[in-house]
Predict the structure of Glycoside hydrolase family 65 protein.
Amino acid sequence: MKQYLKHHEWHIIEEGLDPHYNKISESVFSIGNGRMGQRANFEEEYSGETLRGSYVAGVYYPDKTRVGWWKNGYPEYFAKVLNAPNWIGIHITIDNQKLDLAKCKVEDFRRVLDMKTGLLSRSFAATLPDGKKVKVESKRFCSMANGEVGAIRYAITPLNFTAKTTLSLYVDADVVNKDSNYDEKFWEEVNKEATEGRAIVTAQTKKTFFHVTTGMQYVITNDGKKATFDRVNIELREKYAGNVIQLDLQEGKELVVYKYAAVLSSENHAKDALVTACAKVLTEAVAKGFDALFEDHARVWAHKWDGCDITIEGDIAAQQGIRFNIFQLTQTYTGEDERLNIGPKGFTGEKYGGSTYWDTEAYCLPFFLGTAEEKVARNLLVYRYKHLERAIENAGKLGFKDGAALYPMVTMNGEECHNEWEITFEEIHRNGAIAFAIFDYIRYTGDDAYLAEFGLEVLLGISRFWSQRITWSSDRNRFVMLGVTGPNEYENNVNNNWYTNTIATWTLQYTLDALNLVGKSNPSRLAEIIAKTNFKETTETHRWREIIAKMHYPHDEKRGVYLQQDGFLDKELLRVSDLGKDDRPINQKWSWDRILRSCFIKQADVLQGIFLFEERYDIETIRRNFDFYEPMTVHESSLSPCVHVILASKLGYKERAYEFYLRTSRLDLDDYNNDTEDGCHITSMAGTWMSIVKGFGGMTVKDGTLHFNPFTPDQWKSYSFRLEFRGRVIKVKISTDAVETELETGEPLEIFLHGKPVLLKK
Amino acid sequence: MKQYLKHHEWHIIEEGLDPHYNKISESVFSIGNGRMGQRANFEEEYSGETLRGSYVAGVYYPDKTRVGWWKNGYPEYFAKVLNAPNWIGIHITIDNQKLDLAKCKVEDFRRVLDMKTGLLSRSFAATLPDGKKVKVESKRFCSMANGEVGAIRYAITPLNFTAKTTLSLYVDADVVNKDSNYDEKFWEEVNKEATEGRAIVTAQTKKTFFHVTTGMQYVITNDGKKATFDRVNIELREKYAGNVIQLDLQEGKELVVYKYAAVLSSENHAKDALVTACAKVLTEAVAKGFDALFEDHARVWAHKWDGCDITIEGDIAAQQGIRFNIFQLTQTYTGEDERLNIGPKGFTGEKYGGSTYWDTEAYCLPFFLGTAEEKVARNLLVYRYKHLERAIENAGKLGFKDGAALYPMVTMNGEECHNEWEITFEEIHRNGAIAFAIFDYIRYTGDDAYLAEFGLEVLLGISRFWSQRITWSSDRNRFVMLGVTGPNEYENNVNNNWYTNTIATWTLQYTLDALNLVGKSNPSRLAEIIAKTNFKETTETHRWREIIAKMHYPHDEKRGVYLQQDGFLDKELLRVSDLGKDDRPINQKWSWDRILRSCFIKQADVLQGIFLFEERYDIETIRRNFDFYEPMTVHESSLSPCVHVILASKLGYKERAYEFYLRTSRLDLDDYNNDTEDGCHITSMAGTWMSIVKGFGGMTVKDGTLHFNPFTPDQWKSYSFRLEFRGRVIKVKISTDAVETELETGEPLEIFLHGKPVLLKK
């Protein structure tokens, strides 16, 4: 845990440059716009510790899988998020000395991320080895108004000299991925060109042949007027194009470099039109200018914040934390492109391949349902619909047939990207989360028609998978599910994980309900789906009903708790509080076998099921299970605390709820898990939002109606949030002594506050 | 399965060169002498499919581990058997055409391995592209009389021409390992020298710094007289030294190259003395000459065969099979060097790292007990004693303490080399095999003193491991063993594997017995061991007794069988005969999760325990377990069939026993598993020997006495073998109607035949 960032309601602030923290700050201060983004790397050269990273959404490379021992069914390739061409570089040489903060004396260093406007700023004074001192102020953003545009304003003022200076402004596609399995470079040059003032490089990814065209164009002023140069050289190297400018820096006069970037990919343009389109975007950006581009950008952010902001009174650290989470989520995924998803590191790093985990359905969907227009969440569902064929192929590789679908653990394009047998082949509850997301979306939006359009086909594929994956145990006279890994990944290859069995039979029942519903509402579409999927309605639904009726759910009568899996009680039932400091985190201190045979739980498992299907359980059942499992839970997944906030809130465990909230909301800001330098934990940020809205706010949807059972943590005065709900925007403000609800837009709506109906009208 | 090799009692014969089979033949025809060996590569250049491999015992390289996802406790390095400098090369160029069998017309190709004398011969006629035709006869051996010496007699006769010819004779240390994780070369040059007639290269392994000095010296005759050369060039390249000789090949005249090799390693010589010693070995070898060296070598083989041969009358394929198994085992491990062990591929390939698996104790020990002097088996035990400290360190990495020892799954120098969590961390029954081997050795030899000298310390370390690894289940009121992989590796991370639980408590009891025995026979040594190991006799033995008394063993009352693990009956209980042809072998056709949740068994598991502790179980219990488990067993490990031969024999299932025998004895000769090209399955060859002696021969040792309950498979007339037993050599010949036993050397001995005492006298 590190606490070097200043607390502020809207800003993330780093004062003073500590090279040891630079990679953490590069992650935290990352900026993006859903289409592209990059870590908060310096524009100038930096020979200290850094992870240079720029990313373009949807562009990936299938790196050859690396495993110790190959197992049948492993994917041959692993889709990697690609470190993309770098357009931010402004290299400066003054009197033959590079401006490199690792080699200068640096004063007044300040890095600020203004979350309100999505602006990254940096200022410092640097003294070069020979005593020359410059002041630098840079500002950078990736435009939320135009996803293909980025801009930098880089101002440099010589404080005590006038000297010959070289500026190198360029686009560089010769980048590497830190986690390349075989030290390979993934980009090849297609085209490059540079003229005075502009450079454009088109690079293509090996194997996947995505083209990305990255252009830059610059305008330089000196002391407020157009600068004059001694000389401009065109520089072209492999995968690199730029200008090298020679000029005089004049003491006391501010030289400002406006560097405009255009990043276009073949996902959105014909390959042969990329260069022309790039030039056009550049021309328009330059014509508009930095300030006007920024205004457009800030306007979009203002609109976004209107919908998704959460305010907290009385706790600046908490306020900063929740805004940081919302900011990162919002700039990672805008919901405009149904081919995209929410990568675990967003645009903040390249660790973990693929872009899509079950995190999307289980954690992110509620955030987008609550804070964005309906189509954003819908696009997340459609994304999986479009991958259905691949999920059926994926199941086929594991021996399933007749349309059974297993969605991948990790994916970019629908193909499985993961290669640990105990996860890839066995952590199949992910399939349940994808089914549940359909239910959750419809429950929230009332968009029943989604079932006929897309949902039912997905549900059929998933139910067929469960139906084949389940085994009839003659000995037990019950259906069982053998060899799975549940949400608690600190158990592998267990039998009858209660959560997985529960979500499997839930899926079967929901699919039966969905068949029924579509049959009534849209019989011709149902007939079409039955024909398309070759669905044997009688025999298949008969088996599903049998499974629902005769599923085995491990349970301990004595304690009145559901058992995480068969044999769980064979373990030594310790509590996390029994562990020594040297034992934590167990995933860094203990060998895997020791973790597996211990009772310790990585993240909610039985409790995840109770959270999803809360309405099935009375409060005392929830309490018994929470009181049994939570003390064994080490919360070593960033996805764990939020579920516990929600259940603890429900149980009235206010202090515990607040403790869990702290773990989730400032995870990256305080580098809680000592891994933020690799990038931020984007998907779990949605859990932070849920912690407030579903946890403290006690928000649920029952029978199409919003319910709130809120409380205010003792540490706060009040908190407020807005919700998008069925065409309305509702504002909720909760303080220690009152709950204020307000309908900001839309038709009147009845909601329930602490179980009592309230009619909201404008 | 391929059956291109000719059946012969003593020879392995390949007629005709089929390039598709070359790598298989290279494995099968491999030669070695316990210190070094190599695949049956051609001496001349060969541009076809080949895996060039030479190996020096005990020389390894710790290659950086490659895994997909790192887990705590994985070894950073993986000791690889090293492909060592190549000394066999004789490259021939005739009129600027290389003699390369991939580019010639080849006739009368014949490769023969004479197992009686350990001689590899090859003969062929080859027509070069321009029509020149030569006849070649080569012979090669690695001397069993002097482990550092190898020799080749390579005779070439031009049949239709006289031409300028170049011979290149060399030593080449610039070799690669096929399975290098990062395409690295593992050898560096230390020194090289070449004079006319001789070349010596010293290479060292990276990281481990083994030095291997490889020398060659040649003598060439032409038409029986010393050959004259036009010119001899010295050739020195990186890691390479040799001579290039220009001479005339004269039509009809036989040119014979005698190439002598000396291979010395720093394991046996001071590094700075290696080159001098190598030169001396070369000088002596040349002085002695090919024929005399061969005579010495063949004499050692004759002596070996005297002790270990098994003859079978009436079945040449079976005769060839068993001799091939014995031949390979004998040339892999001679028992002279207690630092060495029995690598899974011996000198026949480089697949699998490390040299030592539990195969050594569970399968190979009985072979060496039965066929070699006592010290050979004893050295195998001492090898593990010498690794005890490392085994304690290894257990420490997994969180065990106070002297608990976990022997590695795979090792070269005592350190763990394996990196699959479900094996490395969980296949802990290997520890039991190491304890059992001590018991087995003493049971067979009567060498009780071994306990005090070495055995007890190892037993204490292993028992301490079990004691810490076992968990008390309050819920069950029993001790349990969670998260293990049993011998059946088609189950991972199971609870209460019956075999593991059984061998664990057996170890605890045997250690208690051993403490008692050493306490009586050698109290001062016991005191010394207790002090050295800081053994808390009262508390530790108390816990062991508790575990023995309260261990949980899964059992099915209804069927009267032991259960392979908890929950085994949840599976769908199919039979292998229910599988389609497309399903087999399941480890190539099914994904891992499907294998895991199926009932199918890779190799004996419960039956392995019944085999080891046979005396505990009545015949009907054995029958019920065999009849339950064998039909579910796919025998996809080379170690599986032999245990089934032995149990089937005991149960009177003669036909089944013979079927299993066929699977094991000609596994490599017929390339049964389609993988012989990687090398032969050396360790399972000892299982073939056990199949005959313990299976058909029904040999057991009870209370220090040999018992035989033999039968003759219907396909055989008779079979006979010799056994070393407590200073005697006993010959046993079993035919359909009689059993002849004979004491060849040693004191009179009472044995039991079909339960009846027989006194053997000379």
